Amino acid sequence: MLKVIQSPAKYLQGPNAAAQFGQYAKNLADSFFVIADDFVMKLAGDQVLTGLGAHGIRCHAERFNGECSHVEIKRLITLLKQQGCRGVVGVGGGKTLDTAKAIGYYENLPVVIVPTIASTDAPTSALSVIYTESGEFEEYLIYPKNPDMVVMDTAIIAKAPVRLLVAGMGDALSTWFEAKACFDSRATSMAGGQSTAAALSLARLCYDTLLAEGEKARLAAEVGVVTDALERIVEANTYLSGIGFESSGLAAAHAIHNGFTILEECHHLYHGEKVAFGTLSQLVLQNSPMEEIETVMGFCQKVGLPITLAQMGVKQGVEEKIAAVAKTTCAEGETIHNMPFAVTPDSVCAAILTADRLGQQWLSR
Ligand SMILES: [Zn+2]
Fold it and tell me: Ligand 1 centre from 320 Cα, in Å?
């Protein structure tokens, strides 16, 4: 099998990037269809539209209705065609960005992604999650290419709720361990090939950056300011983790995350918060050295990610619930089967329960 690495064609990051990307966007198209929800349009709409206008780019702004569904994608495509725009910009959170990617794919137009939070590593990837109009999961759309440009405005991201940045660190925490597992097992990544040394190195850099800068970045975000540490974490959460997961692959941590989505009491958690506990569980599953497990638990505790089931909201009927989580985790086609050894619901259940015990012990030191 071939080795494959893929990434967005351009990645920009820094304070006020949302107002400055016109100088690069003008090389992609002379007119853009800009989508954002009402909240984000008020927050960043002016910056984006004025910034693009300053470079002679014609813009039409349209309200995103909140759900990345085929109905909404079609509605926006109709409006885009009426306006004759030749590119699409998505500003906001995951669903807005996924919708922009889908519009660009169906209309074969350049796509610019402007996240206003750094809570997952999805923005750089060549995929969208499509929901029904009522918000239920429908399908993944996998695209032949990544966004043409990803723009991270750290001044906006620093002012977003801190818990979102921390959740992004949770998503990024799994990247190195899942990438390494996929590399060892020669698994096929989301990019459709085997991992490269380049993608694996970015995944490692992602982990090292979290350990070095995570706590400092959380503190900066608590006061809403941009520091070097916050810049490093935004890059780790978005770019390093994004390339790492897409071009090296996912394994146990994300599959365990998917398992936890069946529990009602975990619905209040962000993606990255469940992934953090999934990471700790993967370390137990693969019997990582205690020192490594303690490093991960220490990191989670410092930045505010869960390391026990109780912190995740799972307090009653634990064994039964975790058995069900483990079963879902091991469903056919799940990424846990990318681990370099055979995995069963029993071994996953044992790993989760032991991870919980390790977390409890760590917190009661
Ligand atoms: Zn993730």
Answer: 26
